[in-house]
Amino acid sequence: MDKRGIPYVWGGTSDRGYDCSGLMLRAYEKAGIELPRTAREQYGAFDRKIDWDRLKPGDLVFFSDLGHVGMISKPGYMVHAPHSGDVVKEEKLSSWRRQAFVGAVRPDPKGVRQWAELREQRSEPVPASLTATL
Length: 134
Known about the structure:
The protein is built from four helices and eight strands, in the order ββααβββββαβα.
């Protein structure tokens, strides 16, 4: 919440400016939880998804085909970095937001560790094919 008023900057992850996922990355970093960089990766990092009717403060909420993320700040509100020309702010969850809602996650250290392990496995080189010799 202390980042309210800082300008939106595409790709931003600092007090010079934040984009939506950069803001979430730094917020959870402060809590000791490492998140992936983009909104799509942040959503995919957790198997357990949260329904609209079960949102709690701290949950990450995703909108518009995973193109935007915010964090529930209190019931019915989220904090986010909206778009170019705007600033980090708290916003009431509107009916428009409900229609654009894709899903939500409740980040926890265990879930992020599982995501990191999976990511590491995916980046490991494929073993060379074995050849039979006679």
